[in-house]
Q: What sequence folds into this?
């Protein structure tokens, strides 16, 4: 298929990465957002969040004329063959996905249709949403269209790479016409081998939740095991290496830490659990995954309080890493925030550094001190807490760390430091 005209509705992580990457392959892409300030920023080639490689891709698309940004949804849809819905689906109070934005967009699309279009659910949505989107659009138009489920599998911090070199592309549709159009869009990504999976919209919707829930399960399993190893005075890292050497298991996501966060795993695990309850099948493992993760976010903080004999009032701690994972400025559900809250409630003061996320944290008004230099952040603190394993935290100058700290304590929330090395240098270490 030759280049196509595409509308991307929503310019968050998913929408902006999807639009910029399609523009790279000479498709004519119009990204729509209802925030005029954001549209202005993007038309100047600036990206409102940190994602490696994305700003260069946006700038390149703008310069070549393949990528533009607007608040005019109707014109973008009318001018495009394919429209991707990429708006947020946050958790409701009961854990279900809030689809308000999806249906609002679907109604506006319906009002704009005058000829055949393909409408694509790119947002993560529960099983049956494609059918509801179709009903919503049908209520606004007599024009023909097809709704496709095409879930994203992008990891923040390497989203551009994930889009350009996908493990798989899932296309859920019952329409041959829509299927062929979607295959044409993704064909440039399949030159080294076809990794396209064709299925029904409902199967595609479930596949997204299943994938995220499986990854979250790995993390919570490893964290639960790590806590048992703590009780038994066993080094979990040796256990992890032996376990993951089994080719049936492998190492991916089996790293103990302070829990998962971000925009996907927490809400998708909750949404899948809610879906199970609605269908009359309680997903017991998924419920446990969520419970373990909530506990894990505070586990390191609990250990710190215990080490200080239950009283940290008047103590100061430095946190390295505020984003929920490296290579992103996203602080949604970040474990660091749970650690900060736990320690502050017990009277501690917090100093913090992060390479990208400090601006986002500053807007929360948490009452912590944000310091631009990671070493300066350590001054007169009673311990260093590693919450996010950014590359520039992995090999610090330990002599400088020791000189700046009031007490040589290292609390390693990601188990990235050599325990014996730090003990030899005179540090108290716990992971």
A:
């Amino acid at each position: 298929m030759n280049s196509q005209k595409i509308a991307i509705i929503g310019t968050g992580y998913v929408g902006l990465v999807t639009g910029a990457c399609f523009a790279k392959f000479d498709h004519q892409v119009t990204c729509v957002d209802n925030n005029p300030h954001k549209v202005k920023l993007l038309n100047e080639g600036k990206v409102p969040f940190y994602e490696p490689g994305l700003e260069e891709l946006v700038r390149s698309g703008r310069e070549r004329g393949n990528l533009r940004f607007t608040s005019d949804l109707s014109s973008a849809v009318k001018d495009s063959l394919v429209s991707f819905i990429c708006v947020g689906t946050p958790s409701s109070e009961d854990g279900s996905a809030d689809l308000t934005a999806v249906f609002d967009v679907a109604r506006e699309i319906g009002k704009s249709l005058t000829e055949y279009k393909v409408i694509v659910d790119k947002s993560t949505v529960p099983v049956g949403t494609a059918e509801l989107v179709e009903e919503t659009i049908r209520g606004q138009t007599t024009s023909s269209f097809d709704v496709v489920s095409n879930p994203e599998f992008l990891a923040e911090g390497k989203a551009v790479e994930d889009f350009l070199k996908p493990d798989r592309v899932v296309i859920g549709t019952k329409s041959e016409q829509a299927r062929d159009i979607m295959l044409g869009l993704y064909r440039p990504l399949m030159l080294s081998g076809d990794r396209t999976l064709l299925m029904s919209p409902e199967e595609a919707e479930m596949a997204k939740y299943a994938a995220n829930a499986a990854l979250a399960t790995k993390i919570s399993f490893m964290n639960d095991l790590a806590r048992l190893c703590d009780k038994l005075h066993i080094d979990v890292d040796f256990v992890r290496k032996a376990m993951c050497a089994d080719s049936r298991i492998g190492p991916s996501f089996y790293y103990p830490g302070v829990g998962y966060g971000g925009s996907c795993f927490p809400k998708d695990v909750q949404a899948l659990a809610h879906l199970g309850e609605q269908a009359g099948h309680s997903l017991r493992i998924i419920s446990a995954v969520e419970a373990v993760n909530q506990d894990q976010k505070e586990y390191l903080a609990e250990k710190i309080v215990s080490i200080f004999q239950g009283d940290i009032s008047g103590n100061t701690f430095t946190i390295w890493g505020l984003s929920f994972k490296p290579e992103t400025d996203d602080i949604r559900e970040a474990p660091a925030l749970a650690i900060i809250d736990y320690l502050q409630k017990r009277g501690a003061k917090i100093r913090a550094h992060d390479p990208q996320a400090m601006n986002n944290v500053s807007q929360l008004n948490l009452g912590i001190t944000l310091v631009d230099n990671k070493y300066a952040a350590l001054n007169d603190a009673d311990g260093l807490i590693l919450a996010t394993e950014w590359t520039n935290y992995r090999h610090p100058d330990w002599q400088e760390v020791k000189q700046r700290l009031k007490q040589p304590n290292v609390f390693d929330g990601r188990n990235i430091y050599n325990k014996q090395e730090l003990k030899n240098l005179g540090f108290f270490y716990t992971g």
